[in-house]
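@channel sequence for tomorrow's demo:
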Amino acid sequence: MVLSLTMNEEIQLIMFDMGGVVVKHSDGMMEKALLEDFGVTGYQQFSQLNSDLTGLLMQHSKNLIDEETMWQVFTEKTNIAIPSHTESLWAKYFDPILDQNMLTLVDTLKDSGYRVVCATNTEPAHFLRHKQLHQYDHFNTVYASCEIRHAKPEAAFFSYILDSERIEARHVLFIDDYKENCDAAEKVGIHAIQFKNYESLKDVLKQYD
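structure tokens (generated this afternoon):
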């Protein structure tokens, strides 16, 4: 049975991460598939090739560099040639599937009087795909790193949302699957829940009844 929440006097805004929370998707699986396309096996993620690639992906997530520049730098750092392509490689294996239980929860929270937004790190190609599939439609609005030019776990990411929503951090609840992001949210005064699965989230949310 879907958790039925009543309006909490303190929490007014709830922020959901997208990938790994509302959407069943793993960047690791996508990166592994791309590496195999590049002729590289035995690695699950780009960062295993070169730790600098984590920062490179973050730059692209904040739309500070375009995808072609990202691949150029990727080659410079790894000596791995990128196959010729005419469309986004980053979107090639991106097939986001919505968790229907989580969507129902989002709708329930909205019906209970909460403002519910998506707070996500995502690249332009993935952002476009989500929009094409209407996967952001359940939220009141979306704050995507590629649009606001800030990314989790930066404090500026959360400050941007607080300023845009004109709300104090103590009135906000944030749900994300990465502990690092939850810790960063708590440092600016936002309540945070690290997402494990739908059932455990329901149990934790009961404290906000």
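heads up for whoever presents: Residues 129 and 184 are 27 Å apart (CA to CA).
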